[in-house]
Amino acid sequence: MTMTRISVALAAAGLMGATLAQAGEVEVLHWWTSGGEAKAVAELKASMQAKGHTWKDFAVAGGAGDAAMTVLKSRVVSGNAPAAAQIKGPSIQEWAREGVLANMDDVAKANKWDELLPKAIADGLKYQGHYVAAPVNVHRVNWVWANPEAFKKAGAKLPTTWDEFFTAAEALKKAGIIPVAHGGQNWQDFTTFESVALGIGGADFYKKALVQLDAASMKSPTMEKVLTTFKKVKTYTDKNAPGRDWNLATAMVIKGEAGMQLMGDWAKGEFLAAGKVPGKDFACVPAPGSAKSYTYNVDSFALFKLKDPANQKAQQDLATAIMSPEFQEVFNLNKGSIPVRLGMKLDKFDECAKTSAADFVSSSKAGTLVPSIAHGMAVPSASEGALKDVVSQFWNDDKMTVATAMDKMAAAAKSKAH
Ligand code: GAL
Fold it and tell me: What is the distance in angstroms between the CA of the first residue and the CA of the last residue of the chain?
């Protein structure tokens, strides 16, 4: 009896010892603080805690992560990097060049990332051939979110072209509904701008003007039309848009105060968190003219070099968890995005997600899959910032002409793109 008790105690102690030796802390920088975002990141926290690790939440509020990136820079400069930070697109390369990111090849190899990720996405997560970041999802940016009740009240129909968009906006306005819910940060302006550019100019124009930053395309009749259309959208927003957060704009559509919002599918996370049902309480339609194209935004976590072995282990467990099928499913069900891991069943996902997944594949085949500039997927952060500034100046300053805006855009691209 005594022996048994002792061995049970020893076994328990041994087990505890092992857990303690392995348990580390993961500090994770992110900006997921809205309703849907917070629910999604809670799933990551839970999966780390289930492995016995301590989750240190490093949340910096602010859509699209502008504030988060500023805080991250000062932390890394002072030699106190978190284990992981929400960093994506070309910024991953910029951070890797600083020599501060950790090599995740062991995790990637053990879990077959090369086979489970689309090659173009995997390449973006590697620096000099080595994985330095783990991806969580694919967001589609070129969507319109609409309130069917509001549309019914206005006798309007969901738009597929920009002409139809303005017809619907006019009808909503007449019915006393704010046609377009919009917010006040420059990334929100650019989210709208890039959807207009894609819908009016098509994927080839989008790539040439906004990804390759071709000066002639920036000062072209197509860009003129894009800017004119973009500015017309503003006339259907309300006076309180400046300074408003994106999720509060989504809330206006949820409540029926506004008819529609041009936003990526993290907006769906807000509808779902509010208990709304897709296809019934809200509708998702591709941004006008862009149904056959797809603006992608892949969220990923870059992993920073750490000294403590237990924390390194926790960091590797985090990277492993992020790419696991269980996490990819539950996270994306909450986030509004689709799994980035290939070959996942989408049975539990709604029609918006299924459309997104099908369009991701078909646009990739057709060459109309394009990276989002607004969400840091396309151009170096310096060019992105300069372009966003010009587009927002144009949006906010009713005296700025289209010609001036085009000149400024071309200058912004030229002075920063190398
Ligand atoms: C995006 C990010 C999304 C979503 C959005 C609003 O840049 O990729 O995951 O969080 O910002 O915060």
Answer: 76
Q: Which CATH class is domain 3-139+298-353?
A: alpha beta
Side by side, the strands of the sheet bearing 369-371 are 139-140, 294-297, 369-371
Angle at 360 between CA 342 and CA 283, to 5 degrees: 115
Q: Residues for the chain: how many in total?
A: 418
Helix (H) / strand (E) element for 343: namely none
99-136 confidence digits (pLDDT tens): 999 999 999 999 999 999 999 999 999 999 999 999 99
**Mutation pick for ligand 1 pocket among 375, 377, 388 (CB with most ligand atoms within 8 Å):** 375
Q: Which two tokens stand for residue 386?
A: 């300069």
Cβ of 182 closer than 6 Å to ligand 1, yes or no, is no
Question: pLDDT value at position 415?
Answer: 61
Within 181-289, where are the H helices? 186-206, 215-218, 221-234, 246-255, 266-273
Can you point out the beta strands (E) in 255-353?
A: 258-262, 283-286, 294-297, 300-303
**Residue bearing the CA closest to ligand 1, atom 12:** 63
Whole-angstrom distance, CA of residue 116 vs CA of residue 111: 9
Is the distance from CB of 198 to CB of 286 less than 8 angstroms? no
Ligand 1 centroid vs 141 CA: distance in angstroms? 10
The answer to whether domain 3-139+298-353 and domain 140-296+372-416 are alike in fold is yes
pTM: 0.94
Atom index in ligand 1 nearest the CA of residue 376 equals 7
Report the C-alpha dihedral over residues 162, 164, 167, 169, rounded to 10 degrees: -60
> How far apart (Å, rounded) are the C-alpha atoms in residues 134 and 319?
6
**Can you name the residues that pair with 225 across neighbouring β-strands?**
none
Q: What percent of the chain has pLDDT over 70?
A: 94
Answer yes or no: is the C-beta of 268 below 6 A from any ligand 1 atom: no
d(CA 282, CA 338): 18
Using N-to-C axis directions, what is the helix angle for 2-22 and 309-323, rounded to 10°? 80
Task: State whether the Cα torsion 340-264-353-248 is positive or negative.
Answer: positive
Q: Domain segments of the chain: what residues?
A: 3-139+298-353, 140-296+372-416
Enter the CATH code of domain 140-296+372-416: 3.40.190.10
Is the CB of 375 inside a 6 Å radius of any atom of ligand 1? Answer: yes
Residue 64 Cα, ligand 1 centroid: separation in angstroms?
5
**Tokens read off for 25:** 């802390």
Q: Which of 139, 247, 335, 388 maximizes ligand 1 atoms within 8 Å of its Cβ, making it the mutation to test the pocket?
A: 139
